[in-house]
Design goal:
alpha+beta, OB fold (Dihydrolipoamide Acetyltransferase, E2P), five-stranded mixed beta sheet, 1 helix, globular
């Protein structure tokens, strides 16, 4: 298990979804992407959705926690990564955070299609 440490709090990420700590390329912003999504970045040669679940904004270092959420590559970022012993906190439901972002994206897409009369 690993902890994401932000300015105000820390959360633990279950090994069920956490894969490994990785470096990643620049974060490309995507118009309309809702928080806590920051954009998309390449990690280990593949595009990943970048989530900032603690709301601290893009990190200074390009190190994140690569997660697998039902086959989707998701990169979690925070001010720093630590062991849960160093930074105890509640467990983050990564699937729920990802699902919330995905739900907003789909709802916006459906709204645009409705407005176009599709």
């Amino acid at each position: 298990m690993i902890a994401l440490v932000g300015r105000a709090r820390a959360v633990r990420v279950s090994p069920e979804v956490a894969r490994r700590v990785v470096t990643f390329g620049p974060i490309t912003q995507v118009p309309g992407l809702p928080p806590p999504a920051l954009g998309v970045a390449v990690a280990e040669g593949a595009p990943c959705l970048v989530l900032d679940p603690l709301g601290d904004g893009a990190p200074d270092r390009r190190v994140g926690l690569l997660c697998d959420v039902d086959g989707e590559a998701v990169l979690l970022v925070a001010a720093r990564l630590a062991s849960p012993d160093e930074a105890p906190g509640d467990e983050l439901d990564v699937r729920a955070v990802y699902g919330e972002v995905e739900g907003i994206i789909w709802a916006r897409s459906a709204q645009r299609a409705y407005e176009r009369g599709a």
